[in-house]
Input
Amino acid sequence: MKIRGDVDMSTSPDVRGKIAEAFRQIDAGSKAVLIDLSQVRYMDSSGIATLVEAMQNCMKRSLRLRLVDLSPPVRDIFELARLSSVFEIYASLAEAEAGL
Amino acid sequence: MTATAAVTLTVPSHPKYLYVIRSALYPLVIDAGFSKKEAGKIILAVDEACSNVIKYAYEGDHSQIITLKATTEDGRCTIVIEDFGKQVDASRIAPRDLADVRPGGLGTHFMGTVFDRVEYDTSRERGTLLTLEKRKG
Output
């Protein structure tokens, strides 16, 4: 799935809903959830909280959460929150899909 | 010496106005000589401060107001955020341990990391004045 635009306190509930919908549509046998963040123009801590919740949901279902192609604003907030080692981050979709 | 510039804004305490705050501050901070990366961090930390006002001072009440005064002078950016809600107990505000990965609680960490000065004034009967100050690196 792909997230676009600003992810802040105003829009993160919609993003959370979109991720929840993606979880509902996961096929049996899926091994990972991939989230493309290349088109995210802005992200605040509510966006980070949304991704942490997604990671926790994945762990409960024995799925991997892989974040793909972080835009510069997302990279900056990950750096500030020191989250780069917490999430599985990939430069491209092809790299994220490899080995699944 | 950089000329003095200022932006004063009063917005409703609704999350959809956070975008307005970010948009108004960005050119001011850039014009003051901060890099795009630094400006992004300053805007993020101000956004977090205003989100905290909505969540904690106004406890989700979107019918209140937030006033923000930003000035830049001599390589220094000062932002004063005023609310009229529940006062914070500044002595109990502390950034959480980042190793404890869980949703929420990062805003205070961002403010403390990005700004050189973070000061809460609760000397008035109601509300809080939060002063955030950043000097150009």
Summary: Helices of chain B lie at 18-31, 36-57, 107-114.
